[in-house]
Amino acid sequence: MSWRSPTGGYDGGGPFPWGYIPNAYDENTTTQAFAYAWAYEWTNFLVLTVASILCDRIRYFVGYAFGWVDQIDVDVLKDGVWTDVFQGMPSWNVWEEKTFSQGNVTAMRIRFHMWIETDYGYVYEADFWELPPPVPAGYSYSNGLVTVNVPG
User: Fold this and answer.
1) Most buried among 7, 27, 67, 68, by the most CB within 10 A?
2) Beta strands in the chain (DSSP E)
3) CA 10 to CA 52: how far, in whole Å?
4) Which CATH number fits the domain that encloses residue 138?
5) Distance between CA 37 and CA 97 in Å, rounded?
6) Which domain holds residue 89?
7) pTM for this entry
């Protein structure tokens, strides 16, 4: 089990595009992908992708420019369906983890809502928590090793 960085990303489409998208997964919390939106609007989604992994949590490190961002909306593409993970006020400029029921995950998407004024939302980093694959009956998993359980 370990944190896994996205392997790609793209703007989800709409009037408020994302810039510098690779910064959201460059392992550096001093660089950021960013998007702006006008007051009372949502940014486009930033979609971050990964090869299919068994996953039950994500984490992100987000911020803003001027203090007018009042919500974040985070979803994962789990078992082929966008699934809501969190919508509300995030913790700013620190890692924040969110959990969900496990499944095969191939993407997460993040967007920001602006309050009163135009502002920028920043995604400094985001990661997926990769779980080990299911262990078949008759086997066990411990410390990264799969063992055959022999009756006896």
Assistant:
1) 68
2) 2-4, 8-11, 33-37, 46-64, 69-78, 81-88, 95-114, 119-130, 139-142, 145-148
3) 17
4) 2.60.120.260
5) 25
6) 2-148
7) 0.88
